[in-house]
Amino acid sequence: xxxxxxxxxxxxxxxxxLVAAFCGALIGYERAIQRKTAGVRTxxxxxxxxxxxxxxxKYGFIDLLNMHDLSLDPSRIAAQIVAGISFIGIxxxxxxxxxxxxxxxxxxxxxxxxxxxxDILIDAINKPDxxxxxxxxxxxxxx
Length: 143
Description:
Layout: H1 7-33, H2 40-59, H3 62-65, H4 75-103, H5 106-112, H6 130-140
Helix pairs in contact: 1-2, 2-4
Subcellular location: Cell membrane
GO cellular component, one term: plasma membrane
Keywords: Cell membrane, Membrane, Transmembrane, Transmembrane helix
């Protein structure tokens, strides 16, 4: 019993992986131009891995599906990706909300950080108008 796929099917899978790599390279190039952290290589790897995962999800269980007494639904693998990405999105949104709540509210930051007093020595020789400017800037910044 031969279980390998015909060469045209394998070439079709390879073409899908190459198209995914090309699309990932385009996205990575666009991000690299903008000096973002995830660049070409990262997006190529993610795109190829995603394409391989979908190919395995769709075609990996064909030989088992041909059995008469076995019932499988290989599309569940692909469907759970959506649920997983949604879960990651919810967690990241909640984390960002908590960070903004704690670090952008001045009352909470004032309670968490101790008030520090320090002295600054400024050498302003022959510049009598500097001291009022410094005092004004310190008052403007609530120091």
